[in-house]
Design brief:
Largest sheet: 8 strands, mixed
Shape: globular
Strand content: 25-35%
Length: 229
């Protein structure tokens, strides 16, 4: 059995604006006003979903996009397109000599435009990675949940990728940033495999190391909430 990654969701005070930004920036379709659908050619396919919240953003997200570029000129154009759509430059302590550019979308969600020639992200597409703050155990957990093989496991850092290609999901290892707010703003929506009922999948997830928070929502071993649809 294996679960399917359906969506990456973000809590935000302005779902419609965020949907418009990311759909315009990535060239994705908008559905239902607050969901950005990847083109059918993206593999594996998933959507970005933006959910309303009244809780302001007070700390960096534990998960962010690393976007790829094919040349320095391409990187410059990607950054300029993001800025024109409402993004801004963002300081997370990066050094001037580092080649990537750190931006934040109109909701303050951080993302990076990586310099050309990054071999780790080679062949992944425009979204190279969902780069996360997390433990090695978390990488192993999500590898088993999604049945995505580990493509990196070194010095407490892990990464997984669908056998069909597409973005990698990475965890940078300790130390983990302290939790802020009622819940993490980004989270995964997953669904049971076809033919598997939700309760059976829930039991499998708990056996793999998921926990149940006071709210009743499931969380991975690092305490990041996710939804089982």
């Amino acid at each position: 059995m294996t679960a399917q990654l359906v969506a990456l969701c973000f809590d935000t005070e302005d779902p419609v604006r965020l949907t418009g930004f990311w759909a315009g920036f990535l060239g994705w379709d908008v559905r239902d006003g607050t969901t950005a659908h990847a083109p059918a050619v993206l593999d594996p396919g998933f959507v970005l979903r933006f959910l309303p919240t009244d809780e302001p953003k007070t700390a960096p997200n534990y998960l962010h996009f690393d976007l790829t570029s094919s040349s320095l000129e391409d990187q410059r154009q990607i950054v300029e397109r993001a800025l024109a759509l409402g993004a801004r430059h963002h300081d997370v302590g990066q050094r001037p000599e580092e080649g990537h550019v750190v931006l934040a979308d109109p909701g303050g969600n951080e993302f990076c435009v990586i310099e050309p020639g990054n071999q780790f992200l080679a062949g992944t597409g425009a979204i190279g990675a969902l780069a996360g703050d997390g433990s090695r155990a978390n990488g192993y957990f999500w590898s088993r949940v999604l049945d995505w093989p580990l493509v990196w496991d070194q010095d407490e850092e892990t990464a997984i990728q669908s056998p069909r290609g597409g973005p990698k999901i990475t965890w940078g290892g300790p130390p983990l940033a302290p939790r802020t707010g009622r819940r993490y703003r980004p989270h995964f929506d997953i669904a049971p495999a076809p033919g598997t009922d939700r309760q059976t999948e829930r039991e499998r997830l708990l056996d793999l190391g998921a926990t149940v928070r006071d709210s009743g929502q499931l969380a991975d071993p690092d305490g990041h909430e996710f939804c089982l649809l």
